[in-house]
Design a protein that fits this description.
It is a single chain. With about 170 residues, the protein is mainly beta. The chain is built from two helices and eight strands; from the N terminus they run ββαβαβββββ. The strands form two sheets. It has a six-stranded mixed β-sheet, covered by helices on one side. A two-stranded antiparallel ribbon has the order 7-8. It is globular and about 45 Å long. The two termini are about 30 Å apart. The relative contact order is 0.16.
């Protein structure tokens, strides 16, 4: 993990590197919260900063939400070969049909997870209704205490609310 300050806002960034077994087809193991904590060397994200978890495989999204980061960024499923909607695709690299957390944005209370369909393919070099994408994420600054105006880009803290994260495909 690392911490950075950007325009007066503090970010803690965590990278989760899962063992190869978690990418096994067709029956990978479940990811327990305890194992994830061990891999990250952190019981939970630091509360003093806006926490971002980089986790390649969205299959374990529920565990990521339980760990508690403010924002999780993921991919791996490439939108599911054939994409039906913002959140639903046909298949994923680990062979589940209609995988959960296939693509799009997902929320649990104050937390958000964004799963990109990415630029490549998996298994079959085919993408149907599933355009390649690069995701842009915009976080808004919190208003001044006492209901004043928004802080300028040179200072302030980010909202800790998932609804204040906006993303779009490019």
């Amino acid at each position: 993990s690392c911490e950075v300050d950007i325009r007066g806002s503090r970010f803690s960034i965590y990278g989760l590197e899962l063992e190869q077994a978690f990418f096994r087809k067709p029956f990978p193991p479940k990811l327990s919260l305890a194992h994830m904590q061990k891999l990250l060397r952190a019981k939970e994200p630091k509360k003093s900063a806006y926490s971002i978890l980089l986790a390649h495989n969205p299959k374990y999204g529920e565990t990521y939400f339980r760990w508690g980061s403010d924002l999780t960024l993921s991919g791996h499923y490439h939108g599911g070969i054939w994409r039906f909607s913002r959140h639903h695709g046909l298949a994923a690299p680990q062979a589940p049909v209609f995988p959960r957390f296939c693509c799009g944005d997902f929320y649990r209370g104050e937390q958000a997870m964004i799963v990109s369909a990415g630029l490549g393919e998996h298994t079959l070099p085919l993408r149907i209704h599933n355009p390649r994408e690069v995701v842009e994420i915009v976080c808004r600054f919190a208003p001044e205490k006492g209901g004043g105006k928004r802080k300028p880009p040179g200072g302030g803290r980010l909202f800790r609310k998932a609804k204040d994260i906006r993303w779009q495909s490019q």
